[in-house]
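ARCHIVE CARD
Drawer: 12
Card no.: 0347
Subject: one protein chain, sequence and derived structure
Cross-reference: see card 0346
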Amino acid sequence: MRFFPCLIALVASPAFAATAPAPAEVDAGGLLRVCLSLAVVIALILAAGWVLRRMQGGGVRAGGNLRCIESIAVGLKERVVLVQAGETQMLLGVAPGNVRTLHVFDQPIAAAMQNAVSPAAAFKTVLAQWRGGAGS
């Protein structure tokens, strides 16, 4: 334990400080190279993300008969998903390595959901009413 304070005093002494190399000056060319290199690396990361996203969705075709209408998490890795296949809507329970049909609807419920007011629209209406009431 007595050795540790002596070691710190020795390392902090001016003799060790004088042997440290002086910091190099930063020129505009070097700074420009570093910024351009950083921009290229960020562009490569974004391009790789875009390519991976396109590869994962490669089997999905636009205008297909299968679509996910709504999904909600019910656990860390469990979800309940409303899926439409053609004219049939199904409620599915999805967990890692397991998909189960919870219910098959006789009539589509998505039409009723589309007519319902979205939370964003309801908030917008309330906010407009509040601003109108506060200004008078």
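Annotation on reverse: The beta strands are 66-73, 79-85, 88-95, 98-105. DSSP finds five helices and four strands in the chain.
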